What we know:
CATH class of the largest domain: Alpha Beta
Number of domains: 2
Distance between the termini: 44 Å
Helix content: 40-55%
Mean pLDDT: 97
CATH architecture of the largest domain: 3-Layer(aba) Sandwich
CATH topology of the largest domain: Rossmann fold
Amino acid sequence: MRLSAIGDVCHAVAMVTRIQTQWRDAEITWVIGKVEYQLVKLMPNIRFIIFDKSQGKAAVESLKAAVANETFDALLMMQVALRANMASRVINAKQRIGFDWARSKELHWLFANKRIAATKHAHVLKGFMDFADALGVPESDSLTWNIPVSPEDEAWGAEQANVLGKYVVISPAASKAERNWLPQRYASIADYIQQAGVSVILCGGPGKLDRQTADEIKANVKYPLKDFTGQTSLHQLLMLLKHAHLVIAPDTGPAHMATTVGTPVIGLYAHSNPRRTGPYLDLDKVVSVYDECIEAQKGKSWENLPWGARAKGSALMEKISVEMVKKKVEPFIR
Length: 334
């Protein structure tokens, strides 16, 4: 059971792929959010149950009906939110595996009868892999993600790549405005990249913040950008990310989507610890001011604070300079 969000679902896919690779006969049911389902809906040999949280109690009743008269060998309770915990009560399972004590929140521990092993300073993806460990699933030789798309979306992505040539994706909008870098600075980086002869495209979801951020970036660039914001399905977006030379993004879903298809990511972080939530294969490319922000606010370094402690403030991302990002971008465009 992992309902949301896109980035966390990407991490969960790695764990599910491991189970499918090592236990080929395993029967898997995934309870997932409505939007997130659109990303993983073509994964093979998985029964999906969509949990639409906007329906409130009706969503729980729908889940209850979907699993009626079933008893699962194990329920992986991979979300600590109280809404998910409460909904999980309608699922009968011999083992109800939850997070360890340190990672349990919102009474999560009350709903589990078994816990994953405690791990200090673990990335979210590693935390999800601990569920496979708890089941006894052997480790895979390599970390892989299996997120199929339709042949039509594959062809669409290849066509865009053919038109665009070598390109960098900027996916500038996180779910909260405070986690976003300044549009003017994104514009400066976009100009820097395009001056080197590499195209830049903007991507994002259909939300108001995504649209506003993209428009502000375009208003500040010297060179026109191709803008796909709000114009793609999740699978089309995945294909744009797959064919990209590089992705630049804050702590947002497309950064983790890019990781699933092997595209390098430069992540921009101030509020959350990138060691925990950064693009898993590209933590060495992160531009982060988190360490200084959290120590200034808490009076302690991140090592001496609860894992997952967040820095607060609406202006923290301003501490990331254009020059800091240019240093990470430069090797990809020279």
